[in-house]
Design goal:
The protein has a single domain, classed as TIM Barrel (Alpha-Beta Barrel), CATH 3.20.20. Helix 14 links the parallel strand 7 and strand 8. It is globular, with a radius of gyration of 19 Å. It is built from 16 helices and 9 strands. The chain is of the alpha/beta class and 340 residues long.
Length: 340
Amino acid sequence: MNDVFLRACRREKVEYTPVWMMRQAGRYMAEYRALREKHTLLELCKTPELATQVTLQPMRLGMDAAILFADILLPLEPMGAPFSFEKGEGPVVHEPVRTREQVEKLRVIDPEEGLGYVLAAIRMLKKELKVPLIGFAGAPFTLASYLIEGGKSAHYEKMKKIMYGETDTWNLLMQKFSEVVRKYLRAQVEAGADAVQLFDSWVGQLSPADYAEYVQPHVAYILKDLEKTGVPVPKWSTGTATLLELQRDAGGTVIGLDWRTPLANGWKRVGYDRGVQGNMDPTVLFAPVEVAKKHALRVLDAAENRPGHIFNLGHGILPGTPVDTVKAVVDTVHEASARR
């Protein structure tokens, strides 16, 4: 297996900077869109053979790691909060959870209960892949945002109303999510995942003080346990320039940096005893190829060939991104970093 990604996560010397990109399997690829004409998103997630097929699609672009095709919201349904993906709206939770009684009814599930198809896909992928497989889950705060708001939100006022005003109920919800996510990610490791990433997509909505009080202890509970497995544990969020030190203290072996945070500065703040991944602006991939390549080289320059850098975007690949530009950036990072 090409293990350059895993060695970079451990801050070991590597022959070149490894590359993977968030949402690298998805709507920008014609192969994926062809499948989506026949299947819903949840059907792709819940059918191990299809999830395996989608996960493998971007490997032809030269990625150094595969990330399991799934969705962060999958645990909600077996916990007792079904949802669907609505055209033009994204995820919609059918009955948002906003009371103590509703939180108490949520089940702390075993990963095989309702999520066995995810673990089956991991086992299938491990028979096919020549690069490491990254498993993942959504972090408690981000899961709560969808569960309470009922879907996407601009201001998270319903969630923050509970967080600030009904802190006991909030902590109970966070504890349930933390235990579900911890067990789920451990099960992914046992099924064969070579690394597991925690996505806290919307935690950048919080101030440092609120993150420290309402979120950090729950994230630390998950990450400190996962680090005992010995696999790399990256984590990612966006808009968190004010939270980097707190995120470092919460745990995780690789910290994601979005494009708003200069990589050199962000890594210095996180500390060189952690790896970092990032951090090119995903919209640059819509620019002319030579411009995209120039931005990729800027990221490499900022990393200064320091062990522990994984090249990635600061967010996921956007629909409509030219596949040829993605391939050109991957090749540029590999070739330029190998010469350094």
